[in-house]
Amino acid sequence: MKKILLVRHAKSDWENSELQDFDRPLNRRGQKNAPEMAGRLLKAGLIPEILVTSPALRALTTAECFADVLSIERSAIIKEPQIYEASSSTLLNIINSLDNKHHFAALIGHNPGLTNLAVNLCDSDIYNIPTCGMVLIHFPFDQWDMISYWTGDQKLYDYPKNVAE
């Protein structure tokens, strides 16, 4: 079985209007939310083998934070330039090309592509993955290239303001 964890980057800082979108860092809330959400994964025993991330600063910083909290080697962070501003079909192509030696991967990126991908992979009713939101999807396949739209089963949807009762 293959598992993909879709993670939208943590909240970014818009304060410096001189910065290009690609270079925006995390703001204070994002710096708080990223380790909090990674901690929820750790508590649940959900630790991806690799983190495939957009190289945009806010996504890469989110990936590095997740790696630190989950004790994932930094060498397991794969920067994939195609994730930045990607459509759901481009993101699916990235998933389809993952190395089959990995069974659990996280894809860290941006909206709207990430939300559209979640909806298309498992017919989810998620309207918008908020910043630092996560969607875990399981697939009944042994190869990443077998994954296609509507073949997954959503197992988790969590986000910073989702407080367990």
Provide an overview of this structure:
With 165 residues, this protein is of the alpha/beta class. Helices cover 30% and strands 19% of the residues. It has one domain (2-152): 3-Layer(aba) Sandwich (Rossmann fold), CATH 3.40.50. The chain has a six-stranded mixed sheet with strand order 3-2-4-1-5-6, sandwiched between helices. Helix 3 (88-96) packs across helix 4 (113-122). The protein is globular, with a radius of gyration of 15 Å. 38% of the residues are buried. It holds the Pfam family His_Phos_1. Substrate binds at residue 58.
Key phrases:
165 residues, Rossmann fold, 6-stranded mixed sheet, 4 helices, 6 strands, 30% helix, His_Pase_superF_clade-1, His_PPase_superfam, Histidine phosphatase family protein
Helix/strand layout:
Blueprint: E1 2-8, H1 28-44, E2 50-53, H2 57-70, E3 77-79, H3 88-96, E4 104-109, H4 113-122, E5 134-139, E6 153-158
Parallel strand pairs: 1-4, 2-3, 2-4
Antiparallel strand pairs: 1-5, 5-6
Number of strands: 6
Strand-pairing-aware structural class? alpha/beta
| Broad shape | globular
Which homologous superfamily in CATH is the superfamily? Phosphoglycerate mutase-like
Could you give the distance between the termini?
Answer: 31 Å
Percent helix range: 25-40%
Q: How much is the average pLDDT?
A: 96
How many domain units?
Answer: 1
**Uncertain runs with pLDDT below 50, 5 residues or more?**
none
Radius of gyration: 15 Å
Main sheet characteristics: 6 strands, mixed
Estimate what percentage of residues fall within beta strands: 15-25%
Here the CATH topology equals: Rossmann fold
**SSE pattern, N- to C-terminal:** EHEHEHEHEE
Instruction: List the strand order in the largest sheet.
Output: 3-2-4-1-5-6
**Count, helices:** 4
- CATH architectural name: 3-Layer(aba) Sandwich
